[in-house]
Amino acid sequence: MNARLVDLELQVRAMAPSRAAAAEQLAFLELGPDEIALLRQVHAPLQARQQAIVTAFYEHLQTVPALRAMLADPQVYARLQSAQAEYFRALTAGDYGADYVLHRVRVGVVHQQIGLEPQWYIGAYRKYLSALAPLLQALLADRPELYLPTYDALLKVVCFDMSLALDTYMQSGRRELRDSEERFRAAFGQAAVGLAELSVEGRWLRANRKLQEIVGYSEAELQALNFRDITPDHEWRADEEAVARLVAGEMDHYSREKRYRRKDGHIVWVKVTVALMHAGTRDASVVAVVEDIARRKQYEEELRHLASHDPLTGLANRNLMLDRLSQAIAFAHRAGRHVAVMFIDLDRFKNINDSLGHDAGDQVIIEVGRRLARNIREGDTVARVGGDEFVVLLSDVARDDEVAALAAKMLAALSLPIIVHGQELAPVGSIGISLYPRDGADSRDLLRNADAAMYRAKELGRGNFQFYAEEMNARTLDRLKLEGGLRRALQRDEFELYYQSQVELSSGRIVGMEALLRWNPPGGAVVLPGDFIPIAEETGLIVPIGEWVLRQACAQQVAWREAGLRDVRVAVNLSARQFKQQDLARLVAQVLAETGCRPQSLELEITESVIMERPEQATAMLQTLSDMGVHLSIDDFGTGYSSLTYLKRFPIQTLKIDRSFVADLINDADDAAIVCAVIALAHTMGLSVIAEGVETEAQLDYLRAQHCDQLQGYYFSRPLPAAQVAALLAA
Length: 731
Ligand SMILES: Nc1nc2c(ncn2[C@@H]2O[C@H](COP(=O)(O)O[C@H]3[C@@H](O)[C@H](n4cnc5c(=O)[nH]c(N)nc54)O[C@@H]3COP(=O)(O)O)[C@@H](O)[C@H]2O)c(=O)[nH]1
Hints:
The chain is an alpha/beta fold. It folds into 4 domains: 3-186, Globins (Globin-like), CATH 1.10.490; 192-297, Beta-Lactamase; 309-469, Alpha-Beta Plaits; 490-730, Alpha-Beta Barrel (TIM Barrel). It has 30 helices and 21 strands. The strands form 4 sheets. The protein has an 8-stranded mixed β-barrel, surrounded by 4 helices. It has a 5-stranded antiparallel sheet with strand order 2-1-5-4-3. Strands 7-8-6-11-12 form a 5-stranded mixed sheet, sandwiched between helices. Helix 3 (33-48) crosses helix 9 and helix 21 runs parallel beside helix 23. Bound molecules: ligand LFPHGCPZ.
């Protein structure tokens, strides 16, 4: 027997009345041995008519559309007909014991399971009785006095059958209800979402396990509470209004996201979907499906945070800063207050990135962000708006001096040492400040003007703060114009090299020419490198410009030589960015090859500060250049902090004393001492020394007395165009 049949049989046995109950029922129906005997008498002749009766019975069933559909399957039809034949056989067989009872109950269960409604069942009994009445009458025609008792006996058996069948239906109904309640209880209890039933006044009536987990209260604890007790900040008003609309029939359910306060005090986000049960009755209650959406809310919050914050520092990003600035302006406008915008740019941050790597740069940025944030009040904002650029918004400011004091405090905080990768760094920042409403009516103007003030702070030597002033915009515009002009200068051939002679003290002969760049913009005066090299350096334009200088200077050296003039060395200045170019050595080799200039006729001047920025890398680069035979000198010597250890290792030939020391040599004992020390040091290390900026005979005499090797300065010659230099060399 398969599992379904076993289950069926178990159900049948469970539903069948006990022997005693069946006997009691038969007694109540007054079906005794006499009646049974009467039925047995007609049993055999009735069996002969069985087929006709069963067929007629089924034809009758087919007249009902619902039953016809149920009997459409031929297999089902054949099985039911065979079961019906057996039913018919047992009806008058006279044995109404346990097997009979089980058979009748089984038929009832099967019919109930296939969905046959009881009304068709009772109609079927009526059909049997109607069909059998004339038959019995015919069979008992010769003994008509037996017809009524026999029919009455048959009626009792059919009533017995009917009671068994109806009992089966009722029991099945009860069982289904019980099963469904159990299923509901299990589903309610184990559901993966929170489920609760509440009174329309908001008292908790039932709460499943998941809901108890979400709110941290047991069901019993909840039953002593109203939902308002665990809903924060009067959020419950919205729930109450919605439930009132449910009760009024204005909607059949509602969903909303809300918060509960857990038993442990934490707030948890949930989505509740609420419907009314038993609407319109005194038993009306509210069913709530409660989903824990804390995760989703957290993701949403994270996404919101990501869209408005800088991922490295966690500070506000530009978007959030602009938003807060607009709000602050609106507030200040209403309240007649001021807003301050501070634009902060780290000075030489690129050097940290280049020399210690991006990881170190990141650490510095994070620490700078922390330091700025530590110095502001609640309600103010620190935002990171670029690589090393920050904006601080002071949303409610009364006076300038308040802002100035804070800017000074921030600069001091910034410059405290940071240890990164074992190196001590002291970040320096330049701060530009604009104030609403004085320096701009909207965010755009305030930021632009704070930026201009920041550039001014940089121009004034970095590490300071500047308030915006009208003329700064003009300066910014000039700077932009200059940058635009520089970009076009190369193509338009607006650059020119001037040369300044370097004189050997012992012989008085010109031994070198320093190439000094000049820019002749169309229609304008000559621009000196001090006014455009820093911008070229910042914008990267220095790389192509520097390449042009190198090529031009080498070509000029060859031209002078080939013109039969003195074979002097040409000195070219290398900027910081050029010196850090990976392919500098390759470029120098290529230019030497292209122009025919000999390596020993080229001198490269690199400033002390550029070399000392990354001495290890500088040593390698200097070595490569030196191996090529190029002459190397350290420019502006004395202005940086050269380590003697490194100095010894650098493959250089010359130290060039900065002209600032030479300028006051005669009047300033300190400068004189420095010059003497540099000359002595260079000679000890086997290097030659050149002093630049020599303007007077007194300076010349002093340097001669100190055995300086070479001199350069206006005393001998100002920087001159190449053509005039040719005359000088010829002379
Ligand atoms: N990367 C590059 N830098 C360059 C290039 N050309 C020039 N420069 C650097 O610009 C700075 C300013 O140069 P410049 O205005 O040309 O000034 C030079 C001389 O004119 C000046 N000088 C020389 N003698 C005297 C003097 O007796 N008195 C006095 N007041 N000034 C004098 O000194 C400048 C040369 O300096 P240095 O290079 O240190 O020898 C300057 O730093 C240039 O290096 C270029 O092509 N690329």
